[in-house]
Amino acid sequence: MFGYNLGTIIIILVIVLLLFGPRRLPELGDSIGKAIRSFKKAHDDPEVLPKEEAKAAPTATAAAQAKTCPKCSKELAQDTAFCPHCGQSLKA
After folding, report:
1. What are the C-alpha distances in Å from 17 to residues 5, 11, 34, 56, 59?
2. pLDDT higher for 19 or 69?
């Protein structure tokens, strides 16, 4: 199995059991399963964004709200306090 013999797999499983304990193993398995399902879903349909990324995706209104730095004249996000390019303080 995966190029490992049975003894090696048992040793790895014992180490995982010692590290995480019997109570955390089901939680760990659930989180790994959810991650694998989300990767498969993203691989099958890359056009679909998860809910968190869809909220963070820039919109036309966000582009209209963008401001520019008075020192370096580069576009900035609306809620920044300092320019990430030149370090100019934007709140006065």
Report:
1. 19, 10, 20, 38, 46
2. 19
Q: Indicate whether this model's pTM tops 0.85.
A: no
Domain chopping of the chain, boundaries: 1-57, 58-92
In this structure, the strands spanning 75-76 and 67-68 are antiparallel
Q: What is the SS3 assignment for 47?
A: coil
* Residues found in the chain: 92
Residue 74 in 3-state DSSP? coil
The continuous run of DSSP H or E covering 67 comes out as strand 67-68
Determine how many CB atoms are found less than 10 A away from the CB of residue 54.
Answer: 9
Amino acid at 91: K
